[in-house]
């Protein structure tokens, strides 16, 4: 059996491309989704993050539920909403449940991909309950899947260096398994290109394989390249490397090997490998389709976490851009659901609407959440402009 970890890069990438085409043919999937980051307040203090703000500092704000609903209402054609925020001590578990219920009621056709294992760990602590009980509450409220973020590197030695206040690797695994047992599937991620070694990446892969072989609950694997521009860790590593350009090149080279490794090492248990245009840029994401990736990710529409660390590739991609990029690379673009099934409401490139919302229902719901008529009129105007 070949040792993919020692294989020359060109041979590894060729093997990954062949394996991807064997499993997926020429199809490359994508999802029409948006982010909704509802709180920038965070007490964790990850060295790689430029998004979270300490309570009481400039920019440390959280959104009202009606504000989140109104923002999501500006893109009624999306099929998925990804809900994530900082670890905000001022937000009660009830806020999270009410937020999910409000979005579910206002936009019943949207799948809610909500709350990282770190957020769920915080909710369990606040509510004084176990992960299983919290998963049941979230699912009953309307959560469909959870993002497998906050994984970073699932090696505690590394986690202590880049985010000493984040939940331990074992607790991340515990929460993800609880989600899978509750019927909430999740993505799986890795943050690479910082202080991790290849043996740490190998350990991370082994943890993910163990979870997937036990639960089968991972929908995809999403490698995320470290963005070093506006955070403490990036400044430190750039100085050590001899400059930001040197660090950028190291991250790029790591990506070129990590993606095909993920295909060859994990592809038999996690068949979907997602690129990240937010981290790699559009050209880099297209190139990675030849490194083993079969999924292009989503439109996002409100990408703010990477941008807060100095990400340079924008906050959104229109579906037309994604489709053109996939076709231009010689692949067949396929719109998908969150869990990699057929998209329930096909997107029309000529009209951004997957399913016309029930006007009275939506407006009534938002009015009940926010009696401010000016806010309601603004929401209606923005929505009509988008349609």
Note down, in words, how this protein is organized.
The structure is a single chain. This protein has helices at residues 9-24, 65-72, 93-106, 117-127, 131-141, 156-162, 169-181, 198-215, 232-241, 244-266, 277-288, 305-308, 319-328, 359-369, 373-386; strands spanning 27-31, 33-37, 80-84, 111-114, 145-146, 185-192, 218-225, 295-298, 332-335. It has 387 residues and is mainly alpha-helical. It has one domain (10-350): Aldolase class I (TIM Barrel, Alpha-Beta Barrel), CATH 3.20.20.70. The strands form 3 sheets. It has a 3-stranded parallel beta sheet, with helices on one face. It has a 3-stranded parallel beta sheet with strand order 2-3-4, covered by helices on one side. The longest helix has 23 residues, at 244-266.
Secondary structure elements and pairings:
Elements: H1 9-24, E1 27-31, E2 33-37, H2 65-72, E3 80-84, H3 93-106, E4 111-114, H4 117-127, H5 131-141, E5 145-146, H6 156-162, H7 169-181, E6 185-192, H8 198-215, E7 218-225, H9 232-241, H10 244-266, H11 277-288, E8 295-298, H12 305-308, H13 319-328, E9 332-335, H14 359-369, H15 373-386
Parallel strand pairs: 1-8, 1-9, 2-3, 3-4, 5-6, 6-7
Helix pairs in contact: 1-10, 2-3, 4-7, 9-10
